[in-house]
Amino acid sequence: MPVKKTAAWSKLDNAAKIFPSTREKSDTRVFRFACELYEEINPAVLQRAVDRAVANFPNYLCVIRKGAFWYYLERRDLHPTVTPEQKRVCGPMVQADQKKLLFEVSYFRRRINLEMYHVLSDGTGAMQFLKAIVTCYLNERHAGELPHPAPILERDSSLSERTSDSFQKYYEKNKKGRQSLLPPKAYHLTGEKLPEDQLLAIEGFVSVKEVLRAAHASQATLTVYLTAVFLEAIRREMSLQARKDPVVLRIPVNLRQFFPSETARNFFGIIEVQYDFGLRSGEFPDILEQVARAFAQELTPDQLSLRMNALSAMEHNPFIRIAPLPVKNIALRLARHMSDVGETAVISNVGRVTMPPELTPYIRSFHVLASTKKLQLCVCSFGDRLQLGFTSAFTSTGLQRQFLAVLAEQGIQAQVASNGFFPAQTPAAGKGD
Fold this sequence. Notes:
Blueprint: E1 9-11, H1 18-22, E2 30-37, H2 43-54, E3 62-66, E4 71-75, E5 83-84, E6 103-108, E7 111-117, H3 123-141, H4 159-162, H5 166-170, E8 200-207, H6 208-217, H7 222-237, E9 247-254, E10 268-275, H8 284-298, H9 301-316, H10 318-321, H11 325-341, E11 345-352, E12 363-370, E13 375-382, E14 385-392, H12 398-409, E15 414-418, E16 429-431
Parallel strand pairs: 5-6, 9-11, 11-13, 15-16
Antiparallel strand pairs: 1-4, 2-7, 2-12, 3-4, 6-7, 8-14, 8-15, 9-10, 13-14
Helix pairs in contact: 2-3, 6-7, 7-8, 7-12
C-alpha cells in the first residue's frame, strides 16, 4: 500500500516549541533509545530495516526551519543513513546552516541506537519508532526461523492518528490552570561540572522482580518506589546546611494514558514530587508516603488537563502569537531559567517494553538515556531486566552510587556499565558487560 504523503511543513506541537529556543551545548534536548540483541548487528540489514520502518513515520523525515514567528518542521526528501556509533551519547543533533534529519540510527556490536531531537517526539513516540526498526531488522535477519513476519506497528493506527497534534485536540480554552512564573527555589545539585559538550552516562541493570518485591513490600508502585529511592540517594549527598531548600523532582508523564491518542509526536506532561528534608523526618517510609501522596494528587485527568491548558495558553495568547521569533526566544530562555530554579533533577519511567513473542528470544534489553545540564534518571524494562539510565553534567558519581547502595540494602544487586569512570565492585554494584 503506498504511503500517504504528509504536508510539506507542520507546526511544532506545544511541548516542542520550547526546545529550539532553549537548546544548549550542555543540554542538546536529544535522547537515546537503544536495543541490545544477543547477536552482532548486520549494518546492511539494519539499513533496510530503517528504510522500511520510517515509511510508517513519514513525519520524521523533516528538518527544522526558522520562521518569522515560530520554528517549524519542513518535509524533505532525505533518507536516514545507518552509521557505526561514533558520537557521544545524546550529542547535538542540530547545527547552524545544516538541513539534516532530526534523528540518527547507529550501531555498536549488538546494540541498535536511535537518537532523536525532542522536537520530533517524546519517549513514547521514539520507542514506537525503535520497536518498528527492531521488528523490521529481526523479520529479515531471521526470516527462515520465523513462521511469519511480526507486525511492524504495535497498534493498527492510521497515519493521520500518528501525526496528529494531541495538545491541540485536548486544549480547552475555558479550562485554565495556573502556571507559576517563578517557582519556589529547590535544592540544586552541586559539584565540578564536565565540559559543556560532555555527558556522563551510567547504566544500572537490576531485576524487575526484585524491585517489584521491594516496592510491594512498601505498598508502593515501581515508579513511586524508585522516586523515593532517588530522594533518599539525594538526601545522603546533601549537607545539613543545604536542607533549607526542598528537593523537587520533575517527572514526565505519558498523557496517552489519560487522554486517548495514537500520536507519535510529543504528548507528555510534567508532575512534581517535593520533599523537604529540613522540615520532615527524612525516614524512608515517610519519603515513600509523601511520594505516593503526590502521585495520587497529580496523576488525575483533571489535574493533568489543568497543567496542559496552562502551558498551551501561552501558545494561544494573541499578543505572544504576533511577537517575532527573536523576542519569543528571549522570553522562552528566561522562562526556562526561572523554571530551572524550582528543579533538582528529573526521573522518567518509560515503562515496560513489549515486543512480539516470536522476537523476544533475540532481544536482551532496551535502554533509555537523555541529555541534561543537571542529572536525570531514565527507567525502562524488558522482561526481567530493568535499566536505570543516569545521565549527568557532573564529574562526581556520588549520587548514582548512593542510589544503587539504597537498592543493595533492599537486596537488589545491580550490574553497571558506563561511558566514563565508574570503578567496579562498589558495595552496590558489580561491573556490567
